[in-house]
């Protein structure tokens, strides 16, 4: 009996998929189909998959060609499957020609011609494309234009600035379709508005975009006034759209996993969270409020919203400017300390100290694919590593696409109440002498 195996994502199941499964089955007596898992696709940077794993499996099953369906969960699994399932032949499409020749020592490898003029990518691009507009007062992109290219279904179309020269230059530089200085007109044809202009104008831009029923991503903090923040979220709910803060940290797989493991008591009860950031290293030097927001976001995710008090201690240089800040947020049974090197260098690091060990995210922890845990009673460090590319924005955009598609009206990565807590903390910190 000849045993055949083939793999794929099989997203938006199409004729090309049907053909390859049929031909693969005809090449043997028993066909195993490996369908990629969601986490494996994210790991390998394939962020645009639309159908769930169950739906993709179901579509493969319905063809009737698969005798067995398995899930492909990690890189290197093919070799393990070939041995485990006693495979004689691996079949893949011609787009992979040569890529699996290294498996020829273990089984026969056949590359079949792809069906012409059809692919999941093509089908995705024929679906609804959401247009994005950027509100800015400088000509630097922050990565939005670049990162959006990794998320299918999004197109950055136009830019708005109060200053026509800035708008025009931004538009030319990033090859957008249009630019404008009339905000209401600019909002007209767009679905998503990304607001990166100076904080003093942000609230007004956000409010007006929400009133027009647009999804909004805003640089953080959106406002330093918690009541105003509440109003903005109420407006988003009223217009059934989502307002998202650009806190990329909460969209990273490594950070989400770290939060789950911490809440699952990997290192026992959390006693302290320490995070340190050199402001110069944070996204190429962001202002103090933006830098501290990312750190507060980590503390809120790890320790919750119910803090008791927040204190700040700062060092000023001879010119009266802040050069170093130490912020402590006290919780009933834990303490968060945030160290910001405004002009001085501090060692970037996030450490969670628990009653039974510690978790460390070294270096640029706000942009990470890695962390390690030292658990009491275990001799070795446990290392966790995830694929991470870009500046994190693509993961936020991908999530926003899902929110729009599923017609969600609240962001579940960073809840509105968490944003309100963040604004409350920032307001106190901002009043530091
Ligand atoms: N395939 C094919 N003909 C096509 C599309 C896909 O023979 N027109 C084959 C691929 O070569 C692969 C299998 O079907 O062996 C599963 O492909 P998959 O990557 O899931 O589909 P694509 O349409 O290529 O997806 P994408 O556009 O996202 O890369």
CATH fold naming of the largest domain: Dihydrodipicolinate Reductase, domain 2
- Please tell me how large the radius of gyration is: 25 Å
Bound molecules: cytidine-5'-triphosphate
The helix-and-strand class reads alpha/beta
Number of individual domains: 3
| Helix content class | 25-40%
> Order of strands side by side in the largest beta sheet?
13-14-15-12-16-17-18-19
Q: Can you tell me about this structure?
A:
By secondary structure, the chain is an alpha/beta fold. The protein folds into three domains: about 5-110, Rossmann fold, CATH 3.40.50.620; about 120-250, NAD(P)-binding Rossmann-like Domain (Rossmann fold), CATH 3.40.50.720; about 255-385, Dihydrodipicolinate Reductase, domain 2 (2-Layer Sandwich). Helix content is about 35%, strand content about 25%. It is built from 14 helices and 19 strands. The protein has helices at about 15-25, 40-45, 55-65, 75-85, 120-125, 145-150, 165-175, 185-190, 200-210, 225-240, 255-265, 290-305, 395-405, 415-430; strands spanning about 5-10, 30-35, 70, 90-95, 110, 130-135, 155-160, 180, 190-195, 215-220, 245, 270-280, 310-315, 320-330, 335-340, 350-355, 355-360, 370-375, 380-385. It has an eight-stranded mixed sheet with strand order 13-14-15-12-16-17-18-19, covered by helices on one side. A six-stranded parallel sheet has the order 8-7-6-9-10-11, sandwiched between helices. A hairpin with a 2-residue loop joins β16 and β17. It is globular and about 80 Å long. The model has no long low-confidence stretch (mean pLDDT about 95). Cytidine-5'-triphosphate binds next to α1, β4 and α5.
